[in-house]
């Protein structure tokens, strides 16, 4: 039989730890994360780069190259720098 063709395949991860990213403005605006944040969003998150330091499920922790706290964002709100 063709049982080997029925094995589940894992889709490739969009990002890996250490990837340089920036926030997609369209995906971030009106999201739960933006509503839970300060109303004046800093422009550096959209300009990048931030470094992806950890991935848990559909969220990633981003560290900016500035003296600011790390943030957790949904991976679909990020794009490669």
Task: Summarize the structure in words.
This protein has 81 residues and is an alpha+beta fold. The protein has one domain (15-80): Roll (SH3 type barrels), CATH 2.30.30. The protein has helices at residues 25-28, 32-35, 44-47; strands at 20-23, 50-56, 59-64, 71-74, 78-80. It has a 5-stranded antiparallel sheet with strand order 4-3-2-1-5.
What can be said about this structure in brief?
The protein is an alpha+beta fold and 81 residues long. The chain is built from three helices and five strands; from the N terminus they run βαααββββ.
How would you describe this structure in keywords?
81 residues; alpha+beta; SH3 type barrels; five-stranded antiparallel sheet; globular
SS elements, strand count: 5
Which structural class best describes the helix and strand composition?
alpha+beta
Overall pLDDT: 85
Helix and strand succession?
Answer: EHHHEEEE
How many structural domains does the protein architecture include? Answer: 1
Distance N terminus to C terminus?
A: 45 Å
* CATH topology grouping: SH3 type barrels
Low-confidence stretches: 7-12
CATH class membership: Mainly Beta
* Largest sheet: number of strands, sense, barrel closure: 5 strands, antiparallel
Q: Give the C-alpha Rg.
A: 16 Å
Give the strand order of the largest sheet, numbering strands 1, 2, ... along the chain. 4-3-2-1-5
Share of residues in strands: 25-35%
Q: What's the CATH architecture?
A: Roll
């Amino acid at each position: 039989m063709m049982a080997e063709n029925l094995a589940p395949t894992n889709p490739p991860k969009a990002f890996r730890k250490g990837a340089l990213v920036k926030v997609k403005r369209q995906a971030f605006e009106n999201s739960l994360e933006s509503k839970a944040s300060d109303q004046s969003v800093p422009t550096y998150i959209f300009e990048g780069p931030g470094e992806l330091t950890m991935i848990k499920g559909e969220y990633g922790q981003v560290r900016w190259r500035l003296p600011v706290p790390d943030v957790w964002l949904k991976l679909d709100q990020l794009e490669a720098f």
